[in-house]
C-alpha cells in the first residue's frame, strides 16, 4: 500500500468527499488560489472551482457563521481556521449558534459543519501560532472534537467529520503535517468519531494521549520496553465524546494511568480524563493518575524555552517510570 | 426607495385634485393592502396580548415587545418566499406571524403561544425561553441572544443560494444597538464581495436597552455603512407602511434577480421597554407620545380608509375577529401538556 503524509491524508479526505457529495465545500483564509498556508487545500480550487474552495476575508466569525448558514440550507461546509489560535473570533458562532441550533430547534435543524483547526507547538510559532486549545471546546454540549495523530486516522476522521450531522472541530497538528508517513488506503473508509485506538498494547501502565504527544508517548514507551516496562499507549482520537469504554478497559488491565497533552495542565482535558478514571476505576488503580502537560503559561517563542514548555520524550519517560515504580 | 426623478408632466399629473376624472393608482394594490393590514393588525394584537399575559404572570421568562415597530417586520416578511431564510433578532414577532402568509409551511398562530407557555407542542419543546420563537419549516432560525450572530448565518444561507443558482433571498434583522457588533461588519462585508442575495434590516428604535443611539455610533445614518461595503444603503421611515412596502419590494426583487445586497435602516420606536422588566424610565414621556402619534398601524388604517380600500367598520370587525382568533389560539396552546422534564437531555446531537 502507498504511504502518504498526514497533510496528504487531509487533502485526500477533502477531495474525496467533495467528489462524493456536491454539497461539500471549503472556505477559509488563503484556501483557494494559494491552497492554504499549510497547503491543506492544495488543488481543490482547480478541481472544484472558485466557490467550492472559497477564499474569505480575514473574518473568523463570518467563516464559521457562513458555514453554519450554508449547512442549514443543506450544504456540508468545511471551514478552515488558519491557526487554531485565531478561533477566538468565532467563539460565539461555534458555541452559541452552531452548537445550540439543533437543540434549540427541538431537533429539527442539524448543523453539519466541519471546522479544521491547525494547532500545536514545536514549530517555532510562538504564543499566537502554537496553542493546543482543544479543551476550550470540550466544555460545550453540541460540539464534537476530534484530534487525529496519524495519516490513517487523519483521513478517516476527516471523512467521518464531514459526514457527521453535527458541528465537528477537527484539530490537526501542524508538526505532524510532513513529519510522518504511513500506509493509507486510497479507497473510501471512515474512522468512527468517539472511538479511541490502542496503538500499542501493554500490561504495566496506560498512557492516554493524542497529536504530537501521542508520538512522544510512543517513543517513551519504546524506551521503557527496553527496561522491561510494558506500556499501553492509547491514542484518544476523539476528545468529545470521550471513549470511556476503551479508557476504563485499559486502566482495569494495567492499574496505572497517565494522560499526556501539550496544553497547559490547569483546565486541560487531562483533568477531565483523570477524574473520570478515578470515578470509574478506583478499585483497580495502583497509583495516582498522573498528568503530564505544559506549564500554565502562554507558549514561549525562544526555541529553548519552547522545548522546555512542551512535554519531552524524556519527561514522559521519567514520569512513566516513576509511576511504574510507585 | 431609490431616488426618483419626477418629470414635469408626471408632477402635474400627481398634483391633480382629488375627484378628477383620472383616478391615481394606489401605492399598494387594494388586495395586497388589505392582506398586509391583516398581518400588521394581527401582530399588534398578539404583541399587546403577550404584554398582558406577561403582566398577569402567565408567561415565565421574559418578553420583548415590538409594539410600535410592526411595519419593519411584517412588511419585509410579506415579500418573503417559503424557502427564503431569516436570521431574526429578538423583536421579530411580525416575521413569524407573516412569513409564508398562510402557506402550509407557515407558523400556526397557536405556536406563538405554545412557545411563550413553554409547552411540549412548541418547536423547541421547552428547551428555549419564551419569545425565542423559531420555525424551521419556514427557514426562520430560532433567535440566539448573542446579538448579531444571526447575520453571518444569514450570509451563509445567501452564499448557498448563489452557489446553487436559486432565486432565494436571505434576511438578517438587527437593532441599531446590535449593529455595533463585530459580526455585523464581518457579514455585511462578506455579502458585498459576492453580491449575495441578502437584505439586512436595521430596526433603529433609538434605544439599545437604555443606551441611546448617540452613544452607539458617531453616525446615526447606519445605512451609510453600506457604501463602505460596496452596495446600496437606504434609510426610511419605518413607521410608514407605504414607504416600507415600496422599499422592501424594491430591495427584495433586486436581491432575488441577482442585483445583490441592500442595507435598509428603518427608523421606528418601541412603545414599551426593552423587555418586560425594563420600565424604560430613561426616556421622556413626550418622546414616547411623539412616536405614538406616528403609530404605523393607525397611520396605515387612515390610509386604507382615506383611499377607500377598507371602511372603519371593516377594520373594527377585523380587529374583533383577530382577537377571537387569538383567544382561541391561547386556549389551544394552554391545553397542551408541559414537556416531561427529563426530555431536556435529548436532542443535543443529531444522528
Topology:
The complex is a heterodimer of chains A (326) and B (351).
Chain A: E1 3-5, H1 6-20, E2 24-28, H2 44-48, E3 53-55, H3 60-72, E4 76-80, H4 91-104, E5 114-119, H5 135-138, E6 144-146, H6 151-163, E7 168-173, E8 181-183, E9 197-200, E10 205-209, H7 212-225, E11 231-235, E12 238-240, H8 244-254, E13 257-264, H9 269-281, E14 290-294, H10 303-309, H11 313-325
Helix pairs in contact in A: 1-6, 3-4, 7-11, 8-9
Chain B: H1 8-14, H2 30-55, H3 71-78, E1 85-87, H4 93-98, H5 109-116, H6 150-164, E2 170-175, H7 182-193, E3 198-204, E4 207-208, E5 211-212, H8 225-229, E6 232-237, H9 241-256, E7 262-267, H10 285-293, H11 296-306, H12 312-335
Parallel strand pairs in B: 1-2, 2-3, 3-7, 6-7
Antiparallel strand pairs in B: 4-5
Number of strands of chain A: 14
Oligomer class: heterodimer
CATH architecture label of the largest domain in chain A: 3-Layer(aba) Sandwich
Task: Flag low-confidence runs of chain A.
Answer: none
Number of helices of chain A: 11
Helix content of chain A: 25-40%
The side-by-side strand order for the widest beta sheet of chain A comes to 3-2-4-5-7-6-12
Please, could you describe this protein's structure?
The complex is a heterodimer of chains A (326) and B (351). Chain A has 326 residues and is of the alpha/beta class. Chain A has 2 domains: 2-184, Thiamin diphosphate (ThDP)-binding fold, Pyr/PP domains (Rossmann fold, 3-Layer(aba) Sandwich), CATH 3.40.50; 197-324, 3-Layer(aba) Sandwich (Rossmann fold), CATH 3.40.50.920. Chain A has helices at residues 6-20, 44-48, 60-72, 91-104, 135-138, 151-163, 212-225, 244-254, 269-281, 303-309, 313-325, and strands at residues 3-5, 24-28, 53-55, 76-80, 114-119, 144-146, 168-173, 181-183, 197-200, 205-209, 231-235, 238-240, 257-264, 290-294. In chain A, strand 13 (257-264), helix 9 (269-281) and strand 14 (290-294) form a beta-alpha-beta unit. The longest helix of chain A is centred in the N-terminal third of the chain and has 15 residues, at 6-20. Chain A is globular. The N and C termini of chain A lie far apart (43 Å). The model of chain A has no long low-confidence stretch (mean pLDDT 98). Chain B has 12 helices and 7 strands. In chain B, helix 2 (30-55) packs across helix 3 (71-78) and helix 3 (71-78) packs across helix 9. Chain B has a 5-stranded parallel sheet with strand order 1-2-3-7-6, with helices on both faces. In chain B, strands 4-5 form a two-stranded antiparallel sheet. With 351 residues, chain B is of the alpha/beta class. The chains are: A alpha/beta (326), B alpha/beta (351). Chain A binds chain B through residues 25, 51-52, 56-57, 59, 61-62, 64-75, 77, 89, 92-93, 96-97, 100-112, 141-142, 144, 165-166, and chain B through 85, 87, 122-125, 127-128, 132, 134, 136, 139, 141-142, 144-146, 149-163, 170, 182-183, 186-187, 189-190, 193, 346-351.
